[in-house]
Amino acid sequence: MSHTFLLEVGLEEIPAHVVTPSVQQLKERVSSFLEEQRLDFKEIVTFSTPRRLAVKVTGVADKQSDIEEEAKGPAKKIALDKDGNWSKAAIGFSRGQGMKPEDIFFKELKGTEYAYVKKYIAGQTAAEILTGIKQVLTAMVFPTMMRWGSNDFKYVRPIRWLVALLDKEVIPFSILNIKTDRLTQGHRFLGTEVALADAADYPQALIAQHVIADAVQRKQLIEEQIKTLAAKNKWHIVVDASLLEEVNNLVEFPTVFSGSFADKYLDIPDEVLITSMKDHQRFFYVLDQAGKLLPYFVSVRNGDSEHLEKVVAGNEKVLTARLEDAAFFYHEDQQKTIADYVERLKKVMFHDKIGTTYEKLQRVQALCQLLAASLDKKDTLTTAENEELQRAAAIYKFDLVTGMVGEFSELQGVMGERYALLMGEKPEVATAIREHYLPNSAEGVLPETKIGALLAIADKIDSISAFFSAGMVPTGSNDPYALRRQASGIVRIALARGWDLSAVSLQEMIMCNYQNVSGLYANIKPVKNVEKMTDFIIERLRKLLSGQQFDFDIIETVSGVAANSFIKMYQAAEILKEHQGETDFKANIEALTRVLRLAEKLPAKEIGTVKTDLFENKAEKDLFTAVSQIESKAANLSGEELYAALGSLRPLINSYFDETMIMVEDEKVRLNRLRQLQKIAALTYRFGALNKLNVK
Amino acid sequence: MSNKMSLQDIILTLQHFWSKQGCMLMQAYDTEKGAGTMSPYTFLRAIGPEPWNAAYVEPSRRPADGRYGENPNRLYQHHQFQVIMKPSPANIQDLYLDSLRALGIDPHEHDIRFVEDNWENPSMGCAGVGWEVWLDGMEITQFTYFQQVGGLEVKPVASEVTYGLERLSSYIQDVNSVFDLEWAAGVKYGDIFGEPEFEHSKYAFEESNQEMLFKLFDTYEAEAKKQIKNGLVHPAYDYVLKCSHTFNLLDARGAVSVTERAGYLARIRNMAKSIAKVFVAERKKLGFPLIKDEKLRNKLLKEDK
């Protein structure tokens, strides 16, 4: 016969974003517990609300599977005495296993025969095993853990009740002073305590108590009610998935309702209205069929529709107070000029150990010039674009000190763009102000404009360099200033734009800027952690490549030369991936790797020109001619061309090695030959550290 | 609603309710402070092993929030109703909901939610886990299980319930501006606090003597440190509160540069942390008199040294 097991932990309100991951964790832990305990089951179903995490396990076996186990005893020569009788050791061993000497048999292990007995262990019953579920519950880990009362025990929120039922029987255990029982709690205000007769009654028994414990079902109910409301009013209600998830985990019994606000607030920018509704009040906002924002909102009550008008009125009042504030800021902010705000940035600290935001603006402004100058001809900015970039860089953080961003910090950049336009800036400048924050997540959209992209890179590299120089290098999961995201933003923008930027060239721009405007680097001379910073940025490209399923050795190869640009690294990875299956691939790489290995023997101070008069054979001459040809056009070769050119050297390299001894006694000749190899190595490194490729 | 509770009725109701739950009714502490948490009845009493159950109204001064009495919801000084219970009772949430019922707020008629809001006051070395309580979308209460105060682990854990009296009353009396609240029959909040709001705002933003305030901060700090050394916890703490308020006045005036800001906060935090340690030591010297369980008391007294 199979059984049903129910486990429910009743808690004080769990943070909404923690509910779903926690119940998944519980499911996984219960599943591995049952597997370890050899207790068969069919399925684990999860239930979760703000006040409970629960799993129902169906098809639970009567008992653990039985096992037969061999227990190893003494060696045969000890188990039997001279006459072949059981020794004391053997008798003791069998007794210790609860058996008789007659049960002993011998088996060889690593050349020696040992005494063994076969033990049969009957499985324990499900009820016995399941008391161990306590450890499953106490082992749970949450993002924030707390203590309560007089206990040292930590959990996500205080535990208030425990249900553990195997069919009709309570599985007894307790956590702190809370004993398991069959009593679960209904909705805080609409339900009562209810005794579950059978585990199978869950979650139906809770519905009468105004609790929809099935999170999926609860979410569907919300979505259906929203749809009905939208259809009735011909609205388009914007249902953001993460907001829906959050709201779903704030309620046990959802009732969707709508409210309105005065038309006059529609003059406030949409972004502000939406932030007020969505982020501050957890409301869904409403559009008309043409996509225009309407003065309505949709929310979800944790309860039924009784007295709903009071709830609507209360929510309307709160939203109105917020919008009144926003309207005030929107009006007040426009009474000042951008120059006023920029002036105030002198008083705003970017970071205590770094300096003011105003200084950052000045650094970034100077850096933008260097960055723009580094672009290829095809990307060179026009005079107008240059002016726009300079203007944007001079003011791009001004909105941080406006009242609106003070109140709605998530609108930084968005308000900057809006106010810049209102205050007469060119659209290109305004857009760059907003776009410099992009991308604002790992997969987030990139700046669409060139000015925005340049400002974004300059701002990010300045931040990274500033924090590294001030000694605040991210470690492990500790990255409070999101520098990883900013580094990956730089890489992604450079790749998308095809700009020839490398971690080293960015670093050099910082150094150059430091020399030009050293006063702005008082606290952050960019001389500390320089290598760490280059590695840190390249690591982001490596992450990006591995996310795109490039092989580890290809990633190692292309990212092995810090001076190569991100775009070249990326292209090299693609080229290697494409060619690695070809027949001469291995031979080409091996020839070049041999060169790289030997070239390392040339001391850096000896790098210099190859003297042709020291050549002793034709292979040397041939190789030199071929290499010189490639060298002369190397700067203009595409990745694919460079790869082909390097490959074409293979026969020459091989005959060179056949005919030429590198490490000869004569120092002049030896150095000359190493210099020859070093030239090839330098060309190879333009492509990547090919010696890191795995061609075995 | 014809029989709306006045603000003082609301205070009386909360006092009556929490006194029945075993809370001592304390009075507002007579040194300026930014929040009820900073009253010694919370900040100091939350630390150490002794039980503590108290409720009180705390006028809280936040100079930077002053709006000359012109903003309907922002005030230089507002009132908090503070409940602190240590160890946190198992039914503290239910007690809180009952207190709303006592105020005539029937949860059946509203939407009441506990929304995650973990509280932190780095300037006093405090951290807690809890919620803001939403009544039909409005935050009316901060609900916290203290985990750390003055840099020390809070053990047993104290639960703190802080009602924003003006907000709650605006809801109960259904007014849009706090100045329209009825404090007592026939007397409006604005009648009492309108003038001080204007004057304090004017003082804090325009007239305060910065030079004097900077000097006062240093003087108060020196005195606090000296009294910490003397083991005189309460006088020392009064001076820390004075430092904190003086800093807030300077901050409102924009007199503290951004660089200095962090430095001032750290100075206050360091004092608060030392006081927390000295307080526990002094209570121990007194034999943790609030612990009535002799066995536990003796055990705790023997701990450590």
UniProtKB/TrEMBL annotation, chain A:
Every DALR anticodon binding domain range: 591-681
Pfam short name (any one): DALR_1
Keyword Ligase: yes
Compartments where located: Cytoplasm
Keywords: Aminoacyl-tRNA synthetase, ATP-binding, Cytoplasm, Ligase, Nucleotide-binding, Protein biosynthesis
Catalytic EC class: ligase
GO molecular function, one term: arginine-tRNA ligase activity
Catalytic reactions on record: tRNA(Gly) + glycine + ATP = glycyl-tRNA(Gly) + AMP + diphosphate
GO cellular component: cytosol
InterPro entries (UniProt xref): DALR_anticod-bd, Gly-tRNA-synth_bsu, Gly-tRNA-synth_heterodimer
PROSITE patterns: AA_TRNA_LIGASE_II_GLYAB (PS50861)
EC numbers, comma separated: 6.1.1.14
Primary location class: cytoplasm
GO biological process, one term: arginyl-tRNA aminoacylation
Similarity remark: Belongs to the class-II aminoacyl-tRNA synthetase family.
HAMAP family: Gly_tRNA_synth_beta
Description of how the protein assembles with itself and partners: Tetramer of two alpha and two beta subunits.
Protein name: Glycine--tRNA ligase beta subunit
Native source species: Liquorilactobacillus capillatus DSM 19910
Organism classification: Bacteria, Bacillati, Bacillota, Bacilli, Lactobacillales
